[in-house]
Design goal:
8-stranded mixed sheet, about 30% helix, kinase, binds adenosine-5'-diphosphate, about 240 residues, Rossmann fold, alpha/beta, disordered C terminus, binds magnesium ion
Length: about 240
């Protein structure tokens, strides 16, 4: 189910299966579902972190695959318009994606997600196309403006009607405010912390910044534990 999603590996080379951490992601999905039991439903979730390379995109991709195993229609959106990698992870084209969908003035309400050029379906031996991928799209000079626009929030509102679950991969908090705007259109935000890379003080500053901006922090996912490819998670924001 969960694949070796290391996008830095050369494509074409036979992928070596690593530790199967699907159970950990299933647990994360269950915890998210429990977290939303007595509150509003979590249909749109975004992921961010303090700095680059802490594992946001990897966790987003794995989480999206785990949701796709459960629901008929799951969408992953690459909202990191500055350093997009979701298309590399799923080995799809990035010619048309989120930025184009926003700039082309597409009427999303009337789009058929199964035939639209903007949405790619991820299919392989074990995954039967229940995961849809909206890559970042062509490079733009104003990512913040696009993500802060009404067009973007309208897009997400329309996509809520078409998908059971939406996962949004975001840039880090330290450099740009993009993820704050994305968080404002999502139901909750997961904060990724790398045990290997993340600086505690910087992470605290990032969390404070998110909270100050009214972001609904759901909890944290800890990556790169003990230099193996394991992943742990814990909720330190929940009551
Ligand atoms: N849990 C993990 N354990 C070890 N390496 C990881 C883990 N998650 C991601 N990586 C590696 O770290 C690098 C950055 O990951 P990525 O998901 O692109 O981070 P980000 O989106 O935060 O920039 C990649 O080479 C990826 O393979
Ligand atoms: Mg990333």
């Amino acid at each position: 189910m969960i694949h070796d999603l290391d996008h830095k590996k050369k494509t074409g080379k036979k992928q070596q299966k690593q530790f199967d951490y699907s159970e950990i992601y299933r647990q994360l999905r269950t915890n998210l579902e429990f977290a939303s039991l007595d509150k509003d439903e979590l249909q749109v979730i975004n992921l961010t972190s303090t700095n680059p390379a802490e594992g946001k995109s990897s966790v987003s991709a794995n989480l999206a695959l785990i949701y796709a195993a459960k629901y008929p229609k799951t969408l992953i959106i690459d909202c990191d318009l500055r350093k997009p990698v979701i298309h590399k992870i799923f080995r799809i084209s990035n010619k048309t994606g989120l930025s184009n969908l926003l700039k082309d003035g597409v009427d999303v309400a009337s789009i058929d997600i199964n035939s639209s050029p903007y949405f790619e379906r991820f299919k392989d031996k074990e995954d039967d196309g229940k995961l849809y991928v909206l890559s970042a799209g062509s490079k733009v000079y104003n990512p913040l403006e696009l993500l802060a626009s009404e067009k973007f929030s309208n897009l997400i509102a329309e996509l809520r009607k078409k998908f059971n679950m939406i996962i949004m991969d975001c840039p880090p908090v330290s450099a740009v405010s993009d993820s704050i705007y994305v968080s404002h259109v999502s139901d909750g935000t997961i904060f990724v912390v790398s045990s290997k890379d993340t600086d505690k003080i910087q992470a605290k500053t990032a969390v404070t910044q998110l909270k100050r901006n009214g972001v609904n922090l759901l909890g944290a996912v800890l990556t790169k534990v003990q230099d193996s490819n394991t992943l742990n998670y814990y909720n330190y924001y929940s009551d």
